[in-house]
Automatic annotation (TrEMBL), chain A:
InterPro entries: Bact_response_regulator, CheY-like_superfamily, Sig_transdc_resp-reg_receiver. It comes from the Bacteria. SUPFAM superfamilies: CheY-like (SSF52172). Residues 3-119 form the Response regulatory domain. Keywords: Phosphoprotein. The modification 4-aspartylphosphate is found at residue 54. Transmembrane segments: none annotated. Pfam families: Response_reg. This is CheY-like chemotaxis protein.
UniProtKB/TrEMBL annotation, chain B:
Residues 11-240, 246-482 form the KaiC domain. Its EC number is 2.7.11.1. InterPro entries: AAA+_ATPase, Circadian_clock_KaiC-rel, KaiC, KaiC-like_dom, KaiC_dom, P-loop_NTPase. This is non-specific serine/threonine protein kinase. Transmembrane segments: none annotated. It is an enzyme of class 2 (transferase). The keyword Oxidoreductase does not apply. Gene3D superfamilies: P-loop containing nucleotide triphosphate hydrolases. It comes from Azospirillum picis.
Length: 122, 494
């Protein structure tokens, strides 16, 4: 079973995406910000197969989380999907090392298609 | 509330919404905590976002924190068509986050810590907390919630960060948090028979004066547009009144000699009469006297500019040339669901921007029909007249009376003659089987005038005074009354 770390501060979005991913057969870890996500990863024995993270979050944002992942040899190869309501160019100014960008609001089929495609590549 | 001298010393954070800043006498006080309260759909979220975008445009930084509110992506989708929206400032200068998980997991102290951290992390000079009710529900007691608000207040003050707390609810009993915050603004959206009107009220504004009472607003493509209530905004005329000396011509052949040579400049005249008697024609004659030095404006509700130009041309009055020269303009209001104060602000703006000296309002009924509070009309007209007078405008307000033929005059507002300097009544009378038109000069302030009833005629050359018509009297009983203002429109009587 593939494991996905879902990082999203808006609890409603996190709840919906989390349950959809679970229905698709994925194991889902949920965190409300980048700091929580790093804490969850530290607690896990095995690195997740994919990180799906929001861009704007309290405490530690999506870019802060992504940079922390890339700086750690244990997590630096985990593919990252970045998602946000702002245009991708806004994110790309500061960070480009992600495999997909989803602009909110997006459709569930698109989201699941991207997740499945990235995990099958891995 | 303190006097303005004290509040001048406190630095303001403008909302960037002209009407609201007028109501707040310049904006929020820097480092203050304010509650914005309103029923769902009243416009709180748009208002708060608009203030954020305006704040950033003015050089500030803002953080928008939601608890139980719509998702950020949906919110931004709804905001994107608004003209104040600027995607390029997100996230560097305007940052959106949700703090609901923190509230759920760590309670109010966790939320307080998060807000403090985000203010510092983003150097926010403005913080919005959308969904205060969720924090209140999370609190174990009133005391815990008051402690949260107090700590937030201390932090806002020490960091020069102005905080707006958005919460649902309508006017009701004073709540604990109301007593603590620096201000409380209430948004309302009320139904009046079949129409609704949005309004806001500053219920508390610590450390500053504010315009009291309710002020209507609209939500447009520019966001909230607030129209400060005319009586509150111009309680003291913005311009000192000048001594009355100069007379201006009415443009009506034969009338000026009867009123001492013309109407005194910067006075208000009400011209009352039934439908079809010639009120608009009278107004067109008045505007035909416009010039570069004395620009004119017709602020109309009924006949469109195209029809007015045709009407003037058919009477030999060349308004088109005056328009081309820039000496005359028409501002026409569609008969929709206008807001009384919106109309008055539009009128005053047109007068100021064009330097208008001759004004015709056709007619006062347009204002009356826009008012959801007819009780206001007497004071509203008085304030508007005062402001126009201060701007040096000689105003002619046309007003339709209900009864078509007869000697008694009845209009919807009692005591109106005390509000204006000049009052002229036009009437139909039946004489030996024929309808004749009469003009009665009822009041010309500071001037002698001929009290005789004057017969007048409208020909291809417009209005002309024929002379006195003995034996007939117009009784301006209702107009001359100084009794209480009626909130009901009296039925026509003969």
């Amino acid at each position: 079973m593939k494991t996905i770390l879902l990082v999203e501060d808006e609890f409603g979005i996190a709840a919906v995406l989390g349950s959809i991913l679970e229905e698709e057969g994925y194991r889902v870890l949920v965190a409300a910000n980048g700091r929580q996500a790093l804490n969850r990863l530290a607690e896990e024995a095995v690195a997740p197969d994919l990180v799906v993270t929001d861009f704007m979050m309290p405490v530690l944002d999506g870019i802060g989380l992504a940079r922390a992942l890339r700086a750690d040899p244990a997590w630096q190869d985990i593919p990252i999907i970045m998602m946000s309501a702002v245009p991708e160019l806004t994110v790309k100014r500061d960070f480009t090392d992600y495999v997909a960008y989803l602009r909110k609001p997006f459709s569930v089929p698109l989201f699941l298609h991207r997740v499945a495609a990235i995990l099958s590549e891995g | 509330m303190t006097d303005d001298r004290h509040s001048l010393e406190l630095e303001r954070v403008p909302s960037g919404i002209a009407g609201l800043d007028t109501v707040l006498r310049g904006g929020f006080l820097k480092g203050g905590v304010y509650i914005i309260q309103g029923v769902p759909g009243a416009g709180k979220t748009i208002l708060a976002n608009q203030i954020c975008f305006n704040h950033v445009a003015a050089g500030g930084r803002a953080a928008y924190v939601t608890l139980l509110a719509e998702s950020h992506s949906r919110m931004l989708q709804h905001l994107r068509p608004m003209r104040f929206f600027d995607e390029t400032i997100i996230p560097d200068r305007l940052y959106y986050i949700s703090a609901f998980n923190t509230l759920e997991e760590d309670g109010l102290s966790g939320l307080r810590d998060l807000l403090q951290r985000e203010i510092r992390a983003h150097h926010a000079s403005l913080l919005i907390l959308d969904g205060l009710v969720a924090a209140e529900e999370q609190a174990g007691s009133d005391r815990e919630f008051k402690k949260f608000v107090h700590e937030l207040q201390m932090h806002a003050s020490m960091n020069d960060c102005t905080v707006l707390l958005l919460t649902s609810g309508s006017a009701g009993p004073v709540r604990a948090e109301h007593t603590m915050v620096d201000g409380l603004i209430e948004l309302d959206d009320r139904l009046f028979e079949v129409r609704t009107e949005r309004s806001l009220q500053v219920r508390k504004f610590r450390g500053s004066a504010s315009l009291r009472g309710r002020h209507p607003f609209r939500i447009t493509g520019d966001g909230l547009v607030v129209y400060p209530r005319i009586e509150a905004m111009y309680a003291v005329p913005a311009h000192p009144e000048q001594p009355l000396r100069t007379r201006v011509a009415t443009g009506i052949e034969g009338l000026d000699p009867l009123i001492g040579g013309g109407i005194l400049q910067a006075t208000t005249t009400i011209l009352v009469g039934p439908t079809g008697i010639g009120k608009t024609t009278f107004g067109l004659h008045f505007l035909a006297q416009c010039s570069e030095a004395e620009p004119g404006l017709l602020f109309g509700f009924y006949e469109t500019p195209v029809r007015l130009r045709d009407k003037a041309a058919s009477l030999g009055i060349d308004l088109a040339t005056l328009e081309r020269q820039g000496s005359l303009a028409f501002v026409w209001q569609a008969q929709g669901e206008s807001i009384l104060d919106e109309l008055a602000h539009r009128l005053l703006e047109a007068v100021r921007s064009r330097g208008v000296r001759r004004l015709v309002v056709d007619g006062l009924d347009g204002f009356l029909e826009s008012s959801i509070h007819p009780d206001r009309m007497s004071r509203f007209l008085s304030t508007l007249s005062n402001e126009l007078r201060g701007l040096g405008v000689t105003s002619l307000f046309l007003w339709e009376m209900r009864n078509l033929i007869g000697s008694a005059v009845q209009v919807p507002i009692y005591g109106v003659s005390t509000l204006v300097e000049n009052l002229i009544i036009l009437r139909y009378v039946e004489v030996e089987g024929r309808i004749r038109r009469l003009l009665s000069i009822t009041k010309i302030r500071d001037s002698g005038f001929d009290p005789a009833l004057q017969e007048f005629r409208i020909t291809d050359a417009g209005i002309g005074i024929l002379g006195p018509l003995p034996g007939y009297a117009v009784t301006p009983d209702a107009l001359a009354s100084s009794g209480p203002v009626s909130s009901e429109r009296p039925s026509p009587r003969e």
